[in-house]
Amino acid sequence: MNLAYKRTKKKIDARKEAFTQDRIRRGFERAVTQKFINYFDKVGREAGKALEQNGTQGFDIYLAQTRPSVERILQPHWFEVIKTFATRVDNYLFVKRADNEFFVELLEKFSFRIGANHISDIDSTTRKQLQRVLVSGQKDGLPLPQIAKNIRERFSPKFTRSRSATIARTETHSAASFANHQQGLEYQKLQPNLNKQWVAVNDDRTREAHRIANGQVVAMDEDFIVGGRPMEYTGDPRGGAANVINCRCAIIYIDDETEVFDEQQNVVQPVELQDIPVTGNAKPVSIETLLAPAINNSLRGDSLPIRPVKDIKKEFDERLEAVKSEYTDLRTELSLEGRSYGSRFTGTNKAFKTSLANLDDTTATVVREVFKELDDLAVRFNIPKLNGIYTSKSRKANGSMGDGHLMLNYKSLDKYAASIKGLERKKPQSVIDQETKWKKEIDDINTQRETLLDEGKATLNPIRTRYGLPELLDENGKRIPLDFTAYNAWFNSYDKLVKKQNLLLTKLSNSEIKYRASVDTKPVATWKRGDDISERPWSVKEYFEDGLDKTRSLMYHEFGHHVHQITKVKDRNTYLDPPIERKISDLRNRNIDTGPSEYSRSKGQEWFAENFALYFMGRKDLTAPDFNQLIKDMMEEANGIR
Prior knowledge:
Number of helices: 21
Number of domains: 3
Structural class: mainly alpha
């Protein structure tokens, strides 16, 4: 995008702009292509080595650790692309606003909305290719050294160069287009009448759908229709792989006074989505990839990207605007039938809203990162993503799910966050100072008590007798009678000190109890399938020690409810009686004691959600066999694998 044309009132040469953007992107593509070639070569060598040295178990362990390397390549690449394209736009605006903090914010937005899924896709495809070579070798009866050699060969540069180039082109274009569009939205604040126009390179490599879209002009808040798919900008993931992979198109931002010329221009007015068939030749994802754990293994407390809760709230609000479109058909259908979406489960219309009240920066960041994993699961199940979140001090539950809207108990989240490894919560200094003050007061009282006790021992026979001292006698050798007035005065003074000391000791104890209550210190459950079912933990979160995983297990559990509530729901009847819930009710009744926790016995929906959390957190060893088959059937049907 080049707003110099807009500012100087010149004509915009759409073709020149498309080629200029493509030229800049190619420079970035070349550098990151080589990084991916080197990465795949390293993966082949290390995977082969793991297989030779530790067999298939070592091979599997290695596969679980590949994602962070992809992230380390793409994060700095995205940042440089975003910075370059955002700066290119910003240099032509009336007021220069972009700075490094702004670029970091754009990177965070891109990673949250798009990048995390891209990393998952690249890593999943790589693992699938590695597993395919292994399985093929095993079927042929090859020894492990030969299979390892085949893996190294399959991931050598000559076989990965094409894929590396495709990844480089797609990731560069996605980040550049996102940066352009975000700056376009910023510029719209200065120019409310701003429109956007799709510009294709229009050479012999341009796909037909993009050639047709060339010249299409829409308002900033409207979508282009490209190949039958709505897209906000080039590289928009809603366009699907067929419109995003290897795309070289550009967007220009114009108003009514701008004159655009293009010798190959073919203006296409927006059309209704249903009038154009969806096309594409994307290859189906394997069932193994779809059923793989959803957790981001590189996310740890000591590397958690802590951000202010107000910024995270803003990101959730922006994410929500994109998610709303995923519910359009359902909301329209239910409105026509007289039952609005958002009234069955929540009881109130909380859907399509966001609230992170009472969360601190750390807890909000954890929730934000886990939400990326939930969005990935929504894509896998081909269901709408969660449409909002709110926090509550619920006495009944740690969380709840209804109508795609997630409730989280902020008290529970606070407790989990206190035990995140690498971020273990310490007592606030104010509490430490108060406890130190109480301890000093207790020591002072001890000194006063000892002094007063010594006085009693010196003058009062009842005190001397209590401590085994000889009684005081007069000159005739008779026991000195007790002066009750003096004794009562002494006792009252001593008793006052004891009560004050006990009060301080109680405060000190309660302070410690309160702190320990804020940290979940319950031992990790060790129950496994085949053990006595009476020894199962109450809930699946007890299988995890790290507070980050406890938060995950809660959010994955609630997302499991979203899956059975929304899957196959298309009209009023299926909304009120979701098809999957009928299945899980029957399965739970027949397998009431097969769940991984006591809570899973309560009802079918909880049996499903408890199994779901463990399944996609990589603990399939604890899930019920019937659940495993059910989730496989659902995933295959959702993705047309059958």
